[in-house]
Amino acid sequence: MKLLVIFGLVLFSFVMLNYSGDVAYGQISNQNTLKVSFENNVLPSYEMPLVPGQTFTLSQNHSWVHDETSRFNLESYTLDGEKVKISRTARGDFTLPISTDSSHNIVFSATQQYALSVDGTNDFSYLPSSPTNDNWFDSGTDVSVNVQKTTEVESNKVRQEITGWSLDKAEFWNIEDDGSTSFTTPPITLNEYHQVDFFAAYQYKLNVISETGETSGSGWYEQGVTVPIGVDAGGDGLVLNSLSEWEGADVTYDGNTAQIFIDGPVTVSAKVEKNYSLVASVIVIPILIIGFIGFKKFKNRVPPVEEKPVERIVEKVIEKVAEVPEKKYEDGYDEKLSIYLKEQISSKLDEMKSSEIISGSKYSKIKEF
Amino acid sequence: MLSEEDLIARILKVKNLKENCFKYLEDVSKELLTQKILFAIAELTAEKMGPVKLSEIAKKTTGENDKLKQDLVRLTIEKSLLKCGLVEKLKYASNDVRYILTAYQFQKIKEIDSFRGESSQPLGDVFQLPKNTWPISDNFYLLLAKKHGYEQSLKKLHSDFDGDVIPRGKYETLNSEYTKSLDQINEKLDSTYSGLETLVMTE
Questions:
Q1: Which of B94, B149, B166 sits opposite A348 (nearest CB)?
Q2: Longest Cα separation, chain A
Q3: Exposure winner among A77, A234, B91, B124, fewest CB in 10 A?
C-alpha cells in the first residue's frame, strides 16, 4: 500500500512538472523583446522581454548625472524608426506604453547640460530661459542674466542696490548708474559650469521736508556717505522765511550749509521762522525817519543856550595842548622794522617749505600774496 | 564743498586701523595701486581743499582717465579703501560722486578677543601722511609765518629800545601796534585752527 501511495505521488509530480515545463518552453519560444539604447552611448543599452497580452510601460529618468558639473537630459526618442520629441523637464520619469504583440527597438536622445548659478539676488531671470525651466542650459547655449537693480527691503526706507557683478569669482565689473531699473550681463557661453555673483549695497531713504519752501537732498543714499541738504524757505511778500534749525536727526549745520551723515533711513525737517526785518525796513524805518525829521524841526525852534564860561576855558586849554609841537622820532625806524617783519615772514615760509610742511604749489601762491 | 572745519577735523583725527588695512600705508605697499590712490586723493584734496572726483584720481595715479582706468580705480577704492574706512565716498548728485580721506593720522591696532569682550591694542607709533598733503588753507600757513615775523620783530624792537636806538615814544607806539597784531593772529590761530598749530609744527 505504501508503495502504491509513493508511486502515485511520484507520478503526480512528474505530470505536474511536465505541464509547467511546457508552459515555459512555449513562452520562450514566442517571446517578443524591447531593445533600449541611447545615442552616443550616454547610457548602456539593454534588452527586456515583452509578454504578449500583458501591458508594458517603459520608464526612463528625464535627467541623470554625467559628472560633477554636467548632466544629461532627454530630448527625444526614436521608436522603430519614428522620431518623437519629448516635452522637456528636469525632474521625474519619462514613461511610454509599449505594445507587447511584437518586438520593438527604442533609441533615446539626450543632450548635455551645464548649470548657471546666480548668487546675491533673488530678483533675476535668464535670457533665454532654461529649456528645463531651471538653471541648467544645453551645452553651447549663450545665456544672459537680467537682474533688477533695486530691491525694496522696507517700503520707502531701506533698499538694496546692485552695484557690481562677477563671473566665476574671477572677474569683477561695476554696474553703472545709468538710470535704468535693470541690468543684463553680456552672454555667457554654457560649455562648463558658471557662477554669477551680484554685489549689492544697502541704501537708505533720506527725506528732507519743510512746511514752507523747497528742500534739496532727498533721495536714496548708501550708508556712510555725508549728504548736503538744504531748504529754500522763500517768503510771503515782505515777510521773509528763514531757516532756524534742522530737526529729526543729527544735522551738521553751520548757519550756511547743512550736512547729514547717512546711517539708516532718516527724515529731517527744516524749522522755518518768519523774518520781519524787511517789513521793518520798508514800513517802520520810514515812519521813524519822518518822526525824527519832525522832531528836528521842532527842536530848531528852541532858542540857543548861551555858552558857559567854564566851557570856554576848557576849549582854550585844548587849543593850547594842540599847539605843543609833536616829538620827533628817529627817521625811518618804522620802515626798517616793517622790512625786518617781512623778511622774518618770508624766512618762516621758506623754512616750512624746506621742512615739507607746506607743498610747493601752496608755497608759491602764498609767496605771491 | 566741505567746510574748513570739517577738513581740520579729519587732520586732527587719529584713526585706528587693523593690520590688514594699515598695510596700505606701509612701505611694502609702495608699488600698489591702492597706496598710490591713497596719496593721490590726499594731494588732490590739499590742492582743491575738498573731495575729489574719480577721473582726477585716475589721471593722477595712472596718467589716464578713460573709463577703463576709472573702473579700475573705483574698484580698488571700493574693495579696499572704502571697506577699511580710509576713504569716504560723498555723493553730491547721481552723477557727482567724490572721494576724500577720513583721516590723515593712523594708528595700527591689534584686536584682542577675550572673555571680557573685544578690545584693541596699539602697535607702534602713529603714522602721519606727509604734512604737505594735508588740506590746510593758505591762510593758516600765512598766519604761522606772520606770527613768527611779529614775534621776532617785537624782540628786535625791545632790544633796540634797550640799546637807545629809538626814543620811548616811538617804542611805545610800535610795541602797541605790533603786540595788537600778534594778539589778533594768536586769537585766530586758537579759534579757527585750534590744535592744528602744535600738530603742524611738531616734528
A1: B149
A2: 186
A3: B124
